[in-house]
């Protein structure tokens, strides 16, 4: 199968390059950083350059497009002009959906668990109330809506917090936490913010499995099974890697006063599991990450 990946040099994109190239013919897009795209069939394209995007559809003829490219977290979104965030996360997503419709490709769109309210209970199902509180989450939800208004050959994945070791230039909070703890430095972690985190490698495996399913026009929670706080995630890391738990500094959102207080966006994944797609446990995933370290 021919698969076009946007954001191929990003945190998730680089893992998708590895997983999907094993069985499929991929073309992976990057812009500022090349990452591991240099090892695969890749193209350097500005994701907002619509003419270049259409040329990719015309020449590569993808059967599936996995759209991961975005301004990818609340802090980044707040640090740049809001019209640029809107252009990348909303307008570009709409245009990619239109191109998928025009050239008969299925679109798999990576959205976020942060589209949910975060204060209306735990283990949220796909029909839970949507109240994004950040520009990032709001524009990701608007991207979902633009896709749904355009055509029906899509799968929207509301992905939970991802964790793991970033490849090349890519980093996430989990990776930084591991580096700090390994060097004997303390890490401050919330005890009152809950997610259902998903390992990066597991995420790419699960996308690969999802591609084989004959489904479309659906929204699916894409997460791990375990509801944990950031502190509990740190404790599991310490247990698996024999790191010093005394370096974990317990904090609360009230104490740290983050810009966006999202208490609980843990996700119910019954729909995902009904498709036969099952995430690994956090402990198993972390053991796999550091098996050769």
Computed structural class: alpha/beta
Low-confidence runs: none
Shape: globular
**What would the average pLDDT be, to the nearest integer?**
95
Query: Number of helical segments?
Result: 11
Rg, Cα atoms, Å: 18 Å
Could you give me the name of the CATH homologous superfamily of the largest domain? NAD(P)-binding Rossmann-like Domain
Relative helix content:
25-40%
* Level-1 CATH class name of the largest domain: Alpha Beta
Q: CATH architecture of the largest domain, please? A: 3-Layer(aba) Sandwich
- Order of strands in the sheet with the most strands? 3-2-1-4-5-6-11
Strand content: 15-25%
Largest sheet: 7 strands, parallel
What is the CATH T-level topology of the largest domain?
Answer: Rossmann fold
Q: How many strands appear in the DSSP assignment?
A: 13
Which H/E pattern describes the elements? EHEEHEHHEHEEHEEEHEEHEHHH
Number of domains: 2
What descriptors fit this protein?
Rossmann fold; globular; UDP-galactose 4-epimerase, domain 1; 18% strand; 293 residues; alpha/beta
Task: Give a verbal description of the structure.
There is one protein chain. This protein folds into two domains: 187 residues, NAD(P)-binding Rossmann-like Domain (Rossmann fold); 87 residues, UDP-galactose 4-epimerase, domain 1 (Alpha-Beta Complex), CATH 3.90.25.10. It has eleven helices and 13 strands. It is an alpha/beta fold and 293 residues long.
């Amino acid at each position: 199968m021919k698969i076009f990946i946007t954001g191929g040099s990003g945190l998730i994109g680089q893992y998708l390059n590895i997983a999907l190239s094993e069985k499929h013919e991929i073309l992976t897009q990057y812009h500022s950083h090349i990452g591991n795209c240099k090892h695969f069939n890749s193209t350097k394209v500005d994701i907002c350059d619509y003419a270049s995007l259409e040329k990719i559809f015309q020449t590569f003829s993808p059967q599936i497009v996995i759209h991961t490219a975005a301004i990818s977290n609340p802090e980044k979104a707040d640090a740049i002009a809001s019209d640029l965030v809107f252009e990348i996360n909303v307008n570009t997503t709409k245009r990619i959906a239109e191109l998928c419709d025009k050239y008969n490709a299925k679109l798999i769109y990576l959205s976020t668990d942060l589209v949910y309210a975060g204060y209306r209970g735990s283990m949220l199902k796909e029909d839970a109330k949507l109240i994004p509180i950040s520009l990032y989450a709001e524009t990701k939800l608007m991207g979902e809506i633009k896709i749904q208004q355009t055509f029906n050959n899509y799968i929207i994945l509301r992905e939970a917090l991802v964790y793991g070791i970033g490849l090349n230039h890519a980093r996430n909070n989990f990776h930084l936490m591991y580096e700090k703890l390994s060097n004997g430095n303390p890490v401050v972690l919330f005890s009152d913010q809950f997610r259902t985190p998903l390992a990066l490698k597991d995420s790419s495996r699960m996308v690969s499995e999802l591609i084989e399913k004959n489904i479309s026009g659906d929204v699916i929670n894409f997460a791990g099974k375990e509801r944990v706080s950031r502190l509990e995630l740190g404790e599991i890391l310490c247990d698996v890697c024999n790191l010093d738990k005394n370096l974990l500094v317990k904090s609360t959102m009230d104490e740290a006063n983050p810009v966006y207080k999202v208490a609980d966006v843990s996700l119910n994944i019954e729909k995902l599991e009904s498709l036969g797609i099952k995430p690994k446990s956090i402990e198993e995933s972390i053991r796999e990450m550091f098996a050769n370290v």
